[in-house]
Write a structure and sequence with these properties.
single chain; 123 residues; mainly alpha
Length: 123
């Protein structure tokens, strides 16, 4: 009995004297949609390199003689890069790069097949 009297004396007035485990401050397990991964890059980190990649593909198009297509893709890339520094801008630049690469690869295939039929090297 002496032990319980001492315990009651140490318990502040107005508090619950029962000893119960506290709830965890953060529930175990990750909740879906809770925060973003630490390695996700922001558009400010991704867009400059992506824009540079589009311009390099455009340069290859120009060297392949596709100046009109290259100019159009360069113009669209500039608009996307200068107006949309978000996921929309990233998607637009990725799409433009894919389009430019498709044109480039289709022209290379056409040049290679023409070279085979004429017996000359493609330009």
């Amino acid at each position: 009995m002496a032990g319980s009297a001492q315990w009651c004396a140490e318990t502040p007035f107005g508090t619950d004297a029962r000893i119960t485990p506290d709830d965890a401050p953060i529930p175990p397990g990750a909740r879906p949609g809770h925060g973003c991964a630490m390695d996700d890059q922001t558009p400010a980190e991704v867009l400059p390199s992506l824009y540079r990649e589009v311009l390099e593909t455009v340069s290859r198009l120009e060297r392949a003689g596709q100046r009109d297509v290259a100019w159009e893709i360069r113009r669209k890339a500039l608009v996307a890069y200068s107006t949309h520094w978000d996921s929309q801008g990233r998607k637009a630049l990725e799409k433009l790069n894919r389009e430019a690469r498709q044109v480039l690869s289709s022209k290379r295939v056409a040049a290679a097949s023409a070279a085979l039929s004429t017996g000359t090297e493609p330009a």
